[in-house]
Design brief:
Number of strands: 16
Shape: elongated
Number of helices: 14
Structural class: alpha+beta
CATH class of the largest domain: Mainly Beta
Strand content: 25-35%
CATH superfamily of the largest domain: monomeric porin ompg
Order of helices and strands: HEHHHHEHHHHEHHHHHEEEEEEEEEEEEE
Length: 515
């Protein structure tokens, strides 16, 4: 009798989940962002939401399913005030069909007023969520569009859906539904990968499967050059919030509601294991770039670094350095720096190319936990600038250095120790320099602000450089920074300088995927 009841209950649970999953194949939905659908949420989950008393929750359970948001609203408005509903709906909502929802239903979406409701309706019919994202992006920023997506969906025409590609995802969903209903939720990293990831990324992590379930190319986790440069935090962001959070394909779903932070971390560790070549430092050590301190992590970047200051004679001086960086192999890195300067010398303005620099660095150590990185490097400044015009040193300059990076809680710590010597007198004219940078991110997203402070020293000169950095695209490929270098010593001869950079990670996609 007990087994029969359990079997019947299991069958009914699986059937309910099947219906939900089939519906998901027929619609494009955004990341829920933690918003509960009352048709899917358990009573215990809803009891933790604002203003939902025991009797209200019992009524919600008894009235399932709610076929529309207006149906849910009609029930709740009899027990809760308008202010209480305003506080509740960001947490509990029945997603609305963008093509058929009434104006009344659209106005129930948190934060939507009459103007935005008009915009929702104006672009009908929606054929894909990407269309909604593009059109609403004309009026609000990306974060607000992402928030709207928690409450809406776009139906898919079953006569045009690509079933050969959709079927593997549906089968995976049905299998997962049966496992979850039976209480056999995977908790081991390999089991989680098989349940959530293998259908697209393949059992071996290569992204090669016989019948691809998605249109976009999944990442090849076995390609160390591709899989290692990104930080664990970026992977956690994508697994938790879906591909859209990092400007990637919406075909990468979010698992933040299904997995704990610890499980996501264990899954990332398992995925890292698909790169079997030793010696690759992982992207967790790829800290945000300071303005002056040399990063220890090898990079593929192009940068423009402007400097603006007022000279001792009151004339504005300007410099712009262009830097091309290229990673070599697992731990190497080379770069070329081309400076253009405009200075005041002997009472007149001189503008031209300064001393070109070539440089290389190599990672000599990373700890087993991948929390610390140490690099040695060498810069050579070539006497290409006009010394008489104040645009160069007139001789080659050699600069060996040691760079180090680590984290202290939520803080990034990056340091550089260097010795600068003219090639014609390496010892007696050598000067010791050092840079220390401390910074932290304000959020987990790639468009976050990073606050930083640098201490810059060269021989007897000492300066402090507070700075701000921000990613400009959801992919993280473009970033800018700005700061003010304030001299702490020799202030009678050294001026405050406005400094910054424009950074392009040229091997990463610049713009978010449109799909």
């Amino acid at each position: 009798m007990g087994n029969g009841v359990r079997s019947t209950g299991l069958a009914m649970t699986v059937m309910a989940l099947v219906l939900v999953l089939v519906s998901s194949v027929r619609a494009q939905v955004g990341d829920s962002g933690g918003v509960m659908n009352p048709n899917l949420a358990a009573a215990d989950e809803m009891r933790g939401l604002p203003h939902l008393t025991g009797p209200i929750v019992e009524g919600l359970v008894a009235r399932k399913p709610f076929l529309s948001m207006t149906d849910l609203h009609a029930y709740l408005i009899t027990s809760l005030s308008a202010d209480q509903l305003t506080e509740l709906y960001p947490r509990l909502f029945v997603p609305i069909n963008l093509n058929t929802a009434s104006r009344e239903a659209i106005l129930l979406v948190p934060g939507v007023g009459a103007r935005m409701a008009h915009e929702f309706e104006e672009y009908r019919p929606y054929r894909a969520l990407a269309q909604f994202r593009r059109e609403m992006g004309k009026y609000v920023d990306d974060d607000e569009v992402t928030r709207f997506e928690r409450y809406v969906f776009v139906p898919i025409n079953l006569n045009t859906v690509r079933w050969p590609r959709a079927l593997p995802l549906c089968v995976l969903g049905l299998t997962w539904a049966a496992v979850a209903a039976a209480g056999q939720v995977p908790t081991e990293p390999d089991e989680m990968f098989d349940a959530f990831c293998a259908v697209c990324h393949g059992q071996d992590g290569s992204g090669q499967v016989d019948n691809p379930a998605i249109d976009s190319a999944p990442m090849d986790f076995t390609d160390c050059a591709v899989a290692t440069p990104e930080p664990d935090g970026d992977w956690e962001l994508v697994i938790t919030h879906g591909g859209l959070a990092a400007g990637l394909s919406s075909e990468m779903p979010s698992y933040g509601d299904a997995l704990t932070t610890g499980q996501i971390g264990a899954l990332i560790g398992y995925i890292r294991g698909f790169c079997t070549e030793p010696g690759w430092p992982i992207g967790t050590l790829n800290f945000p770039r300071p303005i002056f301190t040399e990063k220890a992590f090898p990079e593929n970047e192009f940068l423009l670094l402007p400097e603006l200051s007022e000279g001792a004679d009151g004339v504005t001086e300007f410099a712009l350095r262009a830097i091309y960086e290229r990673r070599l192999g697992r731990r190497g890195h080379v770069e070329v720096r081309l400076p253009v300067e405009s200075v005041s010398a002997a009472g007149e303005r001189r503008t031209g190319v300064g001393d070109v620099k070539v440089a290389g660095k190599y990672v000599v150590h990373t700890d087993r936990a991948m929390t610390r990185i140490t690099t040695v490097g060498l810069e050579v400044s070539l006497p290409t600038g006009d010394e008489d015009a104040g645009l160069g040193h007139g001789t080659a300059v050699i600069e060996p250095y040691l760079a180090f990076g680590t984290t202290l809680g939520d803080l990034y710590l990056q340091t550089q120790l260097k010795v600068e010597s003219p090639a014609n007198d390496l010892l007696s004219e050598a000067e010791l320099g050092y840079d220390v940078y401390v910074g932290f991110d304000l959020s987990e997203f790639l468009t976050t602000w990073t606050l930083g402070l640098e201490l810059n020293g060269m021989d007897r000169d000492l300066a402090l450089t507070p700075q701000l950095r921000r990613g400009l695209t959801r992919t993280g490929a473009i970033a800018v920074a700005a700061g003010l270098q304030i001299p702490l010593t020799n202030r009678d001869t050294r001026q405050t300088r406005w400094v910054g950079y424009f950074l392009w990670e040229y091997l990463d996609p610049v713009f978010a995927v449109k799909n």
